[in-house]
Amino acid sequence: MLPEVARAIPSGAVVTDVGSTKRDLMALAQKHFTGERFFIGGHPMTGLEKGGWENSEARLFENAIYVLTLPLHVPTPLLEALQDFLAELGARVMLLEPEEHDRIAAEISHLPHLLAITLTNFIAREGVKREPRLQMAGRGFRDMTRIAASPFPIWRDILHTNHDNVQQALQEFTLALQQLTQELERDELKPRFQNAQQLQQQMSRGSAA
Asked: Where are the alpha helices (DSSP H) in the chain?
């Protein structure tokens, strides 16, 4: 719809989005938003696994990172106006190039969704009894797999437009799992736990900032 939107908006208008991938979208926007019509890519790093107004959350953007990706010709006052608007919603704005955004999103968003789906399906895999596993799944398991409830049509588009970065993340994570297997065999997991705890504390402090 971007070409149609670009033709319809008045001169001086700014259009933004909330999509999970930016590279393909920004390339298309660069071709159609010319002159005094502007497009700024947006991706709020927050959301719910269920859509619709009935699942809306008034404080959804509060203290959430909100990534903006922009072409070179967006005037600074227009960018600042959008940043101010997002700040009023409680979001913390981060500026990234589209390619960097998609690489990072593949690791901290797209890969975790695939892992959640795989882990959920894993406890109901063929050859095992499903019910005792589902009944024993406590809060930790439910927290890790909550996002597995996300609708496939959205994720089909996300994975299609960021396929190469997601593939790379999966390959690197597979190597990490292989290393984990070796460390488990050698009883050398303590440094991994300690490092993860430190990183988690850093993320928690960042969320509270």
From this structure: 2-8, 23-32, 76-88, 98-105, 111-122, 130-136, 139-145, 152-161, 163-186, 190-208
